[in-house]
Design goal:
Blueprint lengths: L5 E9 L5 E5 L2 E5 L7 E9 L3 E11 L25 H18 L22 E5 L7 E3 L6 E3 L8 H17 L13 E8 L6 E7 L7 H12 L3 E8 L11 E7 L2 E6 L2 E6 L8 H15 L5 E5 L5 H7 L4 E6 L2 H13 L5 E5 L2 H10 L6 E4 L8 H11 L3 E6 L2 H13 L2 E9 L9 E8 L3 H14 L5 H11 L8 E6 L10 E6 L2 E7 H16 L6 H12 L4 H11 L4 H5 L4 H8 L6 H6 L1 H4 L4 H13 L12
Helix pairs in contact: 1-9, 2-3, 7-8, 14-16, 16-19
């Protein structure tokens, strides 16, 4: 297969980002805007070692799930990815993906509860952030790009948002407002940011600017008031002078009205500032929080609510709970949470402005009694240090985990499992219809008696496995032999800012990539197991990893991290003889392995796959080992 080839492809699956997948010449081919069951004519755009990317030129036979997309920029904008299939098919796909990831990464084969969903798949968002073209038109970024697709009225947003964008565009053009240019960091206006409180109808407009003041603000206020009337509750500027792709800065200034809007969620009045976290789909957030409350069983319990935002989850349970402590790092959100407690007459809740992990550590030192811990972290999930504090210092009866990324959720489920907590139940919740995103709420319960005794004994050893990547990398670099100190390097990124792109890891020699491990291989593994199951062949991930994936180096970034953490607690002799070839690779480069050992294992190494042997050869060359018959060369 080569670039620009045109092939006929049957689409047999869909990735977590919504790309269709077919097989050709034994390779996975990823094709956007296709659906399972499509037969498509595809042009190959890029070819990698084990997979390729293509573009659908023609849908020869459409999938039974296909519908006609109802958005003029669907094939351009990076927002919606499922407007070409029925909503029923989308829900099934999302639920299956959550299950597959929790099984693959989390190591738990437990079917999800029925996915929660609502009736409205359009106009459900209460927040929108519009980047602005240099031409002055607002829109959204194209998929995996910073190219802006003009789109004033998005079908996911309330109709008023389109009106506001149109008013802003006319104001920009009339007053020649300069637009921020990412290339040279010059220009004033960066983003148009709009929020609407669904229950009260209040609207907040925030303009993100690269300065301290907004010109011609009175004219803009007049136009907005004429169009929106009493609905316009707040007009603000957010000051962001940083050369960054982070949308909001730390400081806001109110130009008109209040600095907040008020909504109602789970019978709790909620004040929201521009910087407060709030679920973008209020109706579905209520369903999500009610499920979280079912899992928490808050009656007469002491609840610790980490990453609490404006306090919405904790306050929704506070009237039943004995006490609620919320932790949030954004000061404005904490102020909102404190105000929301007073507004609703809730006296058993208090809030702390701090990093979640640091606050949890301090609260644990104070011996704060905690029956239930709720976590609702950002896409990157919880830190290893936080999970350790929750499991081993608070030891609550239950942990309720709300996640917006199945991959990091599954990773954390695995870590909690190692520390004595089992996955009892989980429920996907579609807060983001027509997009690739999915929310999941999970109930973890502390194991009891003999069930958790083994984990308890292993806790001190296991802690070292779950350090941050920087610490893991430092430990591995410290173990490198002197001859490879400046030659071998490890790379890993979780891509936590890009939804559902799990990550990538590599081992490099002289800055050249020797082997790589990515989410694409994870997808291929899941697909292979799924196909075998459909054919009636029940095999385990472990069997396939040992017999096929490991010898062929068809491994994902999770395999790399799990192997690396395992290596750090495994003795050298075991690693040199392990069925996990990555442990052997790490050992070949370890300063604790001497020349005599390297010479002794030569014949055994000759039986191994080429990708493994290359690391042995590199070490032998670096140490200038001369064998009786010949010198090993790379």
């Amino acid at each position: 297969m080569q670039k620009n080839d045109e092939i006929i492809l049957d689409i047999i699956d869909v990735t977590n980002e919504g790309n269709g997948v077919g097989k050709s010449d034994g390779m996975a081919v990823f094709v956007p805007l296709t659906a399972v069951g499509d037969k498509a004519k595809v042009k190959i755009l890029k070819v990698k070692k084990n997979y390729a990317f293509g573009k659908a030129l023609e849908i020869i036979t459409p999938s039974p799930d296909r519908i006609i997309p109802d958005c003029p920029v669907f094939n351009q904008c990076g927002g919606c990815v499922y407007r070409h299939i029925s909503y029923e098919a989308e829900l099934k796909l999302k639920s299956n993906k959550v299950y597959e990831v929790i099984k693959r990464i989390g190591g738990v084969d437990l079917a999800p509860q029925p996915i929660l969903y609502g009736e409205d798949t359009d106009r459900y968002r209460n927040k929108a952030q519009f980047p602005i073209c240099l031409s002055g038109k607002a829109g959204f970024y194209a998929f995996h790009s910073h190219r802006i697709v003009p789109c004033g009225d998005c079908k996911l947003q309330p109709l008023e948002f389109g009106e506001i964008v149109e008013i802003c565009e006319k104001w920009i053009a009339k007053n020649k407002i300069s637009i921020y240019n990412e290339d040279n960091s010059k220009g004033l206006l960066r983003h148009i940011y709009i929020r609407k409180a669904e229950q009260t109808g209040e609207i907040m407009l925030t303009l993100v600017i690269n300065d301290d003041d907004l010109p011609f603000e009175d004219e803009l206020i007049t136009e907005l008031k004429n169009a929106l009337g009493e609905s316009l509750k707040s007009l603000q500027i957010n000051i962001n002078k940083q050369n960054t792709n982070v949308i909001l800065g730390d400081k806001c200034k109110t130009l008109y009205g209040e600095s907040y809007i008020t909504d109602i969620l789970c019978d709790v009045k909620v004040r929201l500032s521009a910087l407060s976290f709030y679920q973008v789909n209020r109706t579905m957030a209520e369903k999500l929080y009610k499920k979280a409350s079912e899992y928490a069983k808050p009656k007469n319990k002491n609840i610790l609510d980490l990453y609490c935002g404006a306090g919405t989850i904790g306050l929704s349970m506070a009237r039943q709970a004995k006490s609620v402590i919320g932790v949030e790092i954004i000061p404005e959100a904490v102020k909102d949470a404190e105000y929301n407690a007073r507004l609703n007459g809730i006296e058993n809740a208090r809030f702390i402005c701090a990093d979640a992990a640091k606050a949890a550590e301090e609260l644990a030192k104070e011996n704060i009694k905690t029956d239930v811990v709720i976590v609702d972290p950002p896409r990157k999930g919880c830190s290893a240090e936080l999970i350790d504090t929750i499991a081993n210092k608070f030891s609550p009866e239950r942990v309720v985990y709300v996640s917006c990324d199945p991959a990091t959720l599954a990773r954390d489920i695995k870590i909690f499992g190692e520390m004595g907590y089992e996955l009892v139940e989980y429920t996907p919740c579609d807060l983001f219809p027509r997009t690739s995103h999915i929310e999941t709420v999970v109930c973890l319960s502390r194991k009891k008696g003999d069930e958790c005794s083994n984990e308890t004994e292993m806790i001190s050893d296991e802690k070292s496995r779950y350090k941050s990547w920087s610490n893991l990398k430092k430990q591995m670099n410290d173990l490198l032999c002197d001859s490879l100190k400046d030659k071998i390097s490890y790379f890993y990124t979780s891509y936590h800012e890009v939804h559902n792109a799990y990550g990538r890891a590599t081992i490099n020699y002289n800055k050249k990539e020797l082997v790589s491990f990515s989410w694409v291989e994870m997808y291929a593994q899941e697909r292979e197991v799924s196909q075998l199951y459909h054919k009636g062949k029940k095999v385990s991930y472990g069997e396939l990893e040992k017999e096929k994936w490991m010898p062929e180096c068809k491994l994902c970034d999770a395999d790399f991290i799990n192997s690396l953490t395992s290596y750090l607690k495994t003795d050298i002799t075991t690693s040199l003889n392990s069925d996990n070839y990555l442990l052997r690779v790490f050992a070949y480069m370890d300063r604790r392995v001497g020349k005599r050992t390297l010479i002794k294992i030569k014949d055994e190494v000759e039986k191994l796959p080429e990708w493994v042997k290359q690391f042995y050869q590199i070490r032998c060359k670096a140490d200038e080992i001369v064998f009786p018959s010949k010198r090993i060369t790379v």
